[in-house]
Amino acid sequence: MEATSKVVFDMSNFLGTKWHHDVEQSWADFIYYMASGWEFAEDEAKSARESEVSSATQGFYSVVKGVKIVGDSLEIYIDYYHFDLNEIAFFANPFGNSFGGIGQNPWESMAAQEDTALVDELLALSTSSSDVLGLPEMSLVLGTHAGYVADSLEEFKAASYFPANYFTMGDTVYETADNAQARYQAAIDWYDEYGILWIGNGPYMMTRFDAEAQYAETKAFRDPTYPYSAGDWYYGRPEIPEVVDVSVPTVTKGVAATIAISMVGPENLEATYIITEEATGALVLKAEASTTATYGALEARLTSEDTDTLDIGGRYVLTVLGKSPDVAFLSENTKRFVVRDPLIVNLGETVEEITGTIDTLSDRLDDVSTNLASAIDALSELIGTATDDLSDDIGSVTQAISDTNTNVNKLAGSTSTLLYAIGATLLVALVGAVLTFTKKS
């Protein structure tokens, strides 16, 4: 089988589990759904009556080249390509391309719905056909509508209706006539009990609906075959791409400006920014922020052409939308700014430059004054030190002179004593000589 892409769906969590009316899901549900969808896409009569359903299915089935069942897997071959494989898988999902769908209703319910709309022509399957045909659009939770579908089920059961061609792939028939009869009865019993015919397979069953009272009742579906348990779909709290700060510089008409955006969150962060008029809300500019080499740091780069579209003195609102391709969450941060006149901004810059020069000169003068005061203090200290040293030297000289004078005085005293001694000696000697001379005489 030749096709551009092949997508494999693992159906093991569905096969063998129960619908809400206690019937096992089987390949018959999947095959009937696809066969019915193909008919709506290709059958002229069905397409004419239900053009909305037909157009929805044609886009899908026009590229489907084949379907194959392998074990518990469903292989779908399509002529479709996308560089992201997830996109191919999403496109190949056939469940949801028609009015009903697998995961919503069992095959016997879908067959009865088609019989009610296309054969009995009591209801419409879509809004557009409802408008064109003047018939109510089918809703399985409305008692009257569900009654029409239940009547078709009764007719199927009575006629032993079994659309074998819908369940045949190659040599294999994936349903039996007996099982079809059991399914019809189970659906009828459901309607008899609840008065509605929305039969699903999820964790809750709808058991009552009152349109006038705007009331609906659901009950927990806790069948042991249900494939999921609490926590199976919980993957933790996702990281939200949060815009934590937006720094808007002075925005001048005709001058480029860079707005700094700070974000936290998942690994991949992106941001879209828009500029609107504050008074009217009119959109002026929308663009994507640029990433930088630093994680979480983005920039909204306004070119001179961008700012030239803004009015001088105009008040604008900048809204930054933080996002990430990893999660389906957004955050928002809003800033307001006023556009400046370039002449005034340049004058202000000149004044700031002159003021800066004056401040620099003032600082230098303060430095000179400080240095001069320090020099004067140092000189005063030096002079004081020299004076103290000179005073000490003069004191030392004075002391030496005093000591010399004392010694001289002492010497003078000693000299006087010596003279007195010499004089006394000479006197004694003279007296002795006289006495001797007198004796001789």
Low-confidence stretches: 98-103, 414-441
Task: Please bin the fraction of helical residues.
Answer: 40-55%
What is the H-and-E element order? EHHHEEHHHHEEHEEEEEEEEEHEEH
- Binned strand content: 15-25%
Number of domains: 2
Mean pLDDT: 85
Total helical segments:
10
The whole-angstrom Rg is 55 Å
| Total number of strands | 16
Structural class: alpha+beta
Q: Overall 3D geometry?
A: elongated
Strand line-up across the major sheet: 9-16-15-11-12
Explain what this protein looks like in three dimensions:
With about 450 residues, the protein is α+β, with helices and mostly antiparallel strands. The protein folds into two domains: about 5-220, no CATH class; about 240-340, Immunoglobulin-like (Sandwich). Helices cover about 45% and strands about 20% of the residues. The chain is built from ten helices and 16 strands. It has helices at about 25-40, 45-50, 50-60, 85-90, 105-120, 125-135, 145-160, 175-195, 305-310, 340-440, and strands spanning about 5-10, 65-70, 75-80, 170, 170-175, 205-210, 215-220, 240-245, 250, 255-265, 270-275, 285-290, 290, 295-300, 315-325, 325-340. The strands form five sheets. Strands 9-16-15-11-12 form a five-stranded mixed sheet. A four-stranded antiparallel sheet has the order 8-10-14-13. Strand 13 (about 290) and strand 14 (about 295-300) form a beta hairpin. Helix 5 (about 105-120) packs across helix 7 and helix 7 (about 145-160) runs antiparallel to helix 8. The protein starts with a strand and ends with a helix.
